[in-house]
Amino acid sequence: MLFVCLAMLGIQLVNAQQKTITGTVTSSEDGMSLPGVSVAVKGTTVGTITNINGQYSLGVSADAQTLVYSFVGMKTQEVAIGAMGVIDVVLEPEVIGVDEVVVTALGISREKKSLGYSVQEVQGDDINNTKGDNFVTQLSGRVAGVQVKNNTNFGGSSNIVIRGSSSLTGNNQALFVVDGIPIDNSNTNNTSQLTGRNGYDYGNAAADINSNDIESISVLKGAAASALYGSRAANGVILITTKKGTVKSNAPKVKLSSNVTMNVFDPSTFPKYQNKYGAGYGKYYYGGADYPGFEQYADVDGNGTIDYTVPYYEDASRGQEFDPSVMVFQWDALDPASPNYLKATPWTAGANGPDSFFETGVSNTQSIEVAGGDEKTTYRLGYTYFDQKGIMPNSKIKKNNVIFNGTHKIFDNLKVTSQANYIRTEGKGRPSTGYSDNIMSSFRQWYQTNVDLGLQKELYEKTGRNVTWNPAAYNDLAPAYWDNPYWVRNENYETDVRNRFVGYAQLDWDITSDLKAMGRYAIDTYSELQEERKAVGSGSGEFGVAGSGGRADVTSGYSRFNRDFTETNLDFMLNYRKKFGENIDLSAMVGTNIRRTRTESVFVSTNNGLAVAGLYALNNSVDAMLPPEEELLEQGVNGVFGSVSLGFMDTYFIDGTLRRDQSSTLPEDNNAYFYPSITGSMIF
């Protein structure tokens, strides 16, 4: 929301043209809209991109003649402008080489021409050349029909939706598979965060994948492409192949990379504040005929005269009109630490508004990899350190990622492959979201334009207290609604940490030149801890376990959310490929998958506040803690699957797949379900 878009492929947006052209860009494959398509005036740098609905609007000069439409994986198209004001365009897939090989379901490599469904590949270098916090955001605009919905919160979620949403209320995200291992992409945001009330966005688990380790990505679209994965692939599949060692020489190859980027606040994304009126909701107070937007009921400075005061307790800016000749007691006259204590000050807009609150963010990525191998053994060891400071005060994310890939030929027809990937992610000060207890909610809607945020910062740093601009009254300095924003960022912050391990061991046996067997054991496991703090002295609000009353009057507290996840997959497959004569090609595969998943979580918090300020521990609860919210989910799925592919004259192809799953979460006498598919294609 607050980051500057650094570049857009050299396309420059310009103002003040004589004509505006609008339209929609769709795909010829399925008629779906295409977001991220480049629309440019030929021979110039004037252009734009289509929005999430494939729509665009572009101002052009009177002498512009041709528009150029381009998108990754689609044919570039040129359209004469003429007298048209609306130009709708249908883009066709780019013609591919007839011998191109792509990775499909279960890691099976196939010639792309033989597939009766859409598979699109993106190379790892293309991903890394696009800057972003994680590979999910970097995938945006790279694949036709794939929508990447980026959450602009610092470290927030990024959702991948393939070919539109299939459910109004359920999960529409694709399945992520890394080197044949399905990995968890859970989001642990609580219900309040998901409904927009409050909470933090902790991001998606798939963001743990390091883009520097990616060799290529294949996107499987449609039911036929992903049927072999069963129900969990109903929304498509993102297949990721990681980098491996090479057989070029015995000498290891060392590669170092370093990248530093700056992130700055973009004023164009922020409200434009009026500087005509200050605190209040109109002329409905007690300031008399001269100043109906002020109050006049207290002797603030003790000189025996009833003073004009602003309505401190309000959080809007539709009050008394600004006039620098008028002196009034404002929020900064009430705290002894303020330089304006017991002083009336000119009624003007604040010298430092909300746009002064943001800092310069810095992202630092350092990577090293060592790779090598010979005819029998290959290896790659990589390490990446990522450190990001957000534009909100006291916000940062750190990641440490270590990965090892290795292969070894035991015999000429027997090979073992292994991978181990450890990821540690640490977050601090992620921005709060939603309506309640959110600084951005205050800045965007509930705020007094007479407040000087520079003085808010000065008083917090000087006192370490919650000196709010929004006290309940001149003689009650507790926040009516909003805390000092610097207090919030430095005292009421969250921390989180996730330790994750993903790995597998695989054995490949070439029984004959036509028949091959594979066995693999894989694991994806992680443990995460999320801690939230509310310092003594904060404004009242909801906090902690819902049973603590669903209370809205908690002024301090501490909560912990622990979650442990483990999924194991045991796979066995037999692959048979045979060419009969000159014209018939047969590929067949049968296999089984045994999957076990366990998720355990506990949420617990203090009750009715902290007994001792600054001590964030569960046993520092004012009242006895209420029972924690606990959850245990266990699931076992046993699957068998198979596929047959037949090609004739290298021109006509037919594919059939079938998967049968048995799930422990269904009734025992009705716990099996099938996923069939059949497709055909013809090259002409």
Structural overview:
Among the domains are: 73 residues, Carboxypeptidase-like, regulatory domain (Immunoglobulin-like, Sandwich), CATH 2.60.40; 95 residues, no CATH class. Strands 17-22-23-24-25-28-29-30-31-34-35-36 form a twelve-stranded antiparallel sheet, with no helix packed on it. The chain is built from seven helices and 36 strands. With 684 residues, the protein is mostly beta strands. It starts with 18 loop residues before the first strand and ends with a strand. The N terminus is likely disordered.
Helicity, in percent? under 10%
Beta-strand segment tally: 36
Our estimate of the beta-strand percent is: 35-45%
| Rounded mean pLDDT score | 86
User: Largest sheet at a glance?
Assistant: 12 strands, antiparallel
Query: How large is the count of helical segments?
Result: 7
Radius of gyration using CA atoms only? 30 Å
- Shape verdict: globular
Q: Reading side by side through the largest sheet, how are the strands ordered?
A: 17-22-23-24-25-28-29-30-31-34-35-36
Poorly predicted parts: 1-17
Structural class: mainly beta
N- to C-terminal distance: 47 Å
